[in-house]
Amino acid sequence: DRFVLHGAGYEPRYAAGLDPTLHGIFSDDYITAEILTGHPAMVSAPFGRDVVRTYWLTHDLMRALAMQSIEQVEFAEGNIHRQHVRWTGGGEVWVNRGSNDWTVAGHTLPRYGFYGRAKLAGAIVEAAIERREGVVVDWSRSVDSLYVNARPLLAEESDPLLERMNPTGKVIDFEGIATDGALRLSVEQNALQLMPLPEGKPFTVRFGATILNRQLPRSPVVEVLAEDGSTLGSLPLVREGDQVVCACQPGVFAYRVVAKAE
Q1: Hey, CA dihedral for 115, 120, 125, 129, is it positive or negative?
Q2: Dist CA 65 CA 45 (whole Å)
Q3: Higher pLDDT, 76 or 157
Q4: In the chain, at which end, N or C, are there fewer CB atoms within 10 A of the end residue's CB?
Q5: Is the pTM of this model over 0.70?
Q6: Rounded CA gap, 14 and 208, in Å?
């Protein structure tokens, strides 16, 4: 568990001639190899959609495992492609590197899928690449933030990725939040900030009046934020029954849900 911290390998070496869209540094294959060994994620560029996605997906879980040691590695049911790793401090990771789906710990893991959970500052953090409603998605959750990615199909996606994307734009329920896009919700100074994954398409997100164990303000509005944190304008918060609806547009850095000024 010390040697593996040296990493999974540079992209050309790891992919070894295979299609880099499926086996390169931003692929599910590469990310689950890092998750399997507790290695902090490596990226090949300083900016971009894939870099942000990798950070939002892996950061909290990898930080929780960073100072822990591997206690046990198990090949589930004797299958070397289904691995269960236990860490000191109670952390656990399940990784499926086999060709068939593996349902374990309440999650359905496709090939190169994983589910992990550990404690960070006394609170549970979780992350996964899993199959939900027939679609491969990824997400992570901590006490103050929630990242969800329904994997919308972008124009530049190549054919090999189609089976790992959401080509029909299906709205995916992530237990308390549903979307056909990719975003991160976080608590920022008692406000709720919604940040779309960069370089995406328009999408809609729906969630309840209570999210991340916090209640939304009674008369909320949605502020549109620039990258420097300045406010570009505001939108009324749309409600559908007991749900809040936010339509996210390309080019917007973030949205912030705050109490309406009286």
Answers
A1: negative
A2: 24
A3: 76
A4: C
A5: yes
A6: 42
Residue 219's alpha-carbon distances to 69, 131, 216, 222, in angstroms, are 47, 36, 8, 10
Position 99 scores a pLDDT of 95
CA dihedral over 59, 60, 63, 65, signed as positive or negative: negative
Tokens of 146: 């929630």
Q: Tell whether the model's pLDDT for residue 55 goes beyond 90.
A: yes
DSSP-assigned letters across all residues of the chain: --GGGG-S--HHHHHTTS-HHHHSTTSHHHHHHHHHHTPPP--SSSSSHHHHHHHHHHHHHHHHHTT--EEEEEEGGG-TTEEEEEEGGG-EEEEE-SSS-EEETTEEE-TTEEEEEEEETTEEEEEEEEEETTEEEEEEE-SSEEEEE--BPPTT--GGGGGGSBTT---EE-SSEEESSEEEEEEETTEEEEEEPSS---EEEEEESEETTEEPPSSEEEEEE-TTS-EEEEEEPEEETTEEEEEE-TT--EEEEEEPP-
Q: What angle in degrees, to the nearest 10, is found between the helix axes of 28-37 and 49-65? A: 20
**Structure token digits, residue 189:** 């100074």
Which tokens sit at 251? 């080019």
CA distance 122 to 174: 23
In this structure, the number of other CB atoms found within 10 A of the CB of residue 40 comes to 13
Looking only at the bridges linking them, the beta strands covering 177-179 and 203-208 are antiparallel
Nearest Cα neighbor of 258 from 211, 212, 203, 217 is: 217
Torsion of CA 174, 178, 181, 184, to 10 degrees: -60
